[in-house]
Batch of 2 targets.
Target 1
Amino acid sequence: MAWAGLEHERAQRARVEALTRNLAEAREEIVALHASEPSTPPSPVVISAPALDARIADAIASRVLAASEARRKGEAAMAAQSTAPTDGQLAARAAADRTLDRAIARGRLTRDEIREVRETLADDPLGRAEFRRQLAVALNQKKLVPDDPRLLMP
Amino acid sequence: MMTFKALPATLAALSVLAVADSGSAGESYSAGATCSTRTDGSGSCSGSFSGFLAAADTSAYAAFWNEGAAYGVFVAELNGNYYSCTSTSPAEPWFALSAAPPTTSFTISWTSAGTCSALWMEAGSQFK
């Protein structure tokens, strides 16, 4: 009986220690999140480790996850707003896509096509980035080869 | 069996060897040039700039391009095949490679979507 009690106490102590470690990590993450949000002053997080139980640990973990998700959504929204292409850029990207489709159909990408895309997407860094990514996929899948190895990326 | 007569000569020879040893070149080898892709287009390239330059394929090359810190393109040609990936957040080694000796070893991998997924580099006296 006494042995079982000791075992129980030891298990409880181990559980509290594990929770303490988890909460210390969660606290660091919360502090880091606050630090990365200048508009929101960091709020103090007071943790009394021995008194904490699994419910508090879960609550803090949920808070950390919620904060991470909110920040991710905010960044995604900001990125979407700043990358909204103009009508002219959309038309240029469509033209570049057609050029790539034609090149893939032939299995070759000519110097003139690369120069053409370079001009078409001259004012659209994001359009160029996406075109290059699609070109990389086509190259890796061996769907085309360039006429001039030295002139490969628009 | 070594005699006492032979000992001074042996010691002299050893001292010469020791001197020669301290000045001899260390281990060196080329990081070479290898690239491979899976059926979905994902893959990797390993080697060094000097390795690509010394490849049997005389048109082989490997290049890391970047437009500022926000965008990079890797392109390589080896044995008639082309390999490429792009990155919207090039890792630190990307820029370090530009300033590193051409013998610096690197490995870059990419996903089936053409996105660079990892880049390792290793500079060392052993690379030539």
Target 2
Amino acid sequence: MFGFRHIVLTQFRNYLYQSFSFTERIVGISGENGSGKTNLLDAVYYLCFTRSYFSRTDAQNVHHGQQGMRLEAQLLKNDEAGKLVCIVRENNKKEFYANDEEYKKFSDHIGLYPAVMIAPDDTELITGGSEDRRKMIDTLLSQIYPGYLQQLIAYNKILQQRNSLLKAAAEHKRLDTSLLEILDMQLCERGDVIYQWRKTFAAEFIPLVQQQYISIAGKDDQVQLTYDSQLHNASMAELLQQNRQRDMYLARTGAGIHKDDIDMHMNGLVFKNIASQGQRKSLLFALKLSEFLTLKQQKGFTPVLLLDDVFEKLDAGRMHNLLHRVCVEEQGQVFITDTHNERLEKAFIDLAVPYQLVQL
Amino acid sequence: MQLPSSLLESAVNEFSKLPGIGKKTALRLVLHLLKQEVGEVQQFGDIITRMRRDIQFCQRCFNISDAKICSICANRLRNQRQICVVENIRDVIALETTQQFSGTYHVLGGIISPLDGIGPDQLNIESLVHRIGEEQTEELIFALNPNIQGDTTIYYIQKKIKHLPCKVTTIARGIAFGGELEYADELTLGRSLANRLPVDSYISNR
């Protein structure tokens, strides 16, 4: 079992200084709009991933008008007590400690304390651009495969170098082709490895999502997901070779794993164009639940689940089914926020599980 | 800061341009110089001026030098057919301190990184390629930082000299002296295992 026992927030978002103790496995958090429900969930997420779930800079995570912030948590993992501390100094320099030992590389932390967040804006995953879906897949793969994140960081660095070279070449009307070839070689080395990882992963993940969809929606809507990559038909080296003229003209890299996507279809049509609100939400939950199940299977213990404002998303019946699955059938820690204290309490009583309510 | 003399003020301003020196430290240094004999301060100034004016960069390896050719390059006892490629002069000093290397150096003056606007043309790469061809170099040793840009630079130079019969090596990457295995990161540990050494040569290297 893995879970948070105690958390202290200092100058984090709307909290000046506050501490919370979590005594039960199921934690309900209620409070009015703007009282800091999401921020509390984000603090837990932050300690698992060394960054906020929302795309914010560290300066934006600091309480308005203050400088520097600190998050500290006591937790339990495999029956052993642990401690996580994150400090953002006045100069926005970040330090991260696990059990009082400082990390040299934050990427070493990813995957040790797995967590899954479901937040209101997540429907972007379904309706938004491919970047959101890649980010979700990358977050998940970084936790599963050691080394994935390192390769991805290296890939992105080389990609930046390559694009800078192309831009400089366009300005000076002269390209050092041998340097471009070296960067291409370095890019291919990482790109091909990342592609293999994603391909192996997609083969298991996609059937799982489709299966989860049916179980949440209660019927089969013929939802089809496919992993789309330019690398299906050609190696990274071939792609770069084919696109070289165009890349030079546009001064950026047009092909590679940074263009990968997960295509979503329903009855052969593009999902986001024809799906109803309910179907979108069902698919979102199916994706998130599959992420949760994959992590659990790979890690051998249940990740922390952070459900932000989910009551607004599903009807009562589906909500009960979902909560039953994650709170009763699974043994992990679950945080749920809602504006209505009574609604939370009723849901927990219906489930007949021990719970704790935190009122903000 | 209110200073009673404009001479003092301009001296303080000059000192505070140095890296790591703020206004207060600059004032302390200047006041210290004010306590010295005029002759001594004169000498201090002269040495600095002379250092900047007379110092040269070795035409062969771009190390700092008092003459056209630096003392390392001019030393006939050193192996002239071995070149160690480094990023900057500080690396030369670090490697010389080990007293383990008796070849010559070549200072690149940086590392390839288009993102920072540094391409091969801004570095002493052309002269290195020329030098290897001219001097019939037997071995080129890369002593660059172990990161992506370091690798880019190594591959780039390697490609430029592949028509020449010169052996290309790079410094070993592995467990640090006094380091403990359990604290080494996996990448380093894995690499040390892949490039393990016969015990004989390990011991003879002290």
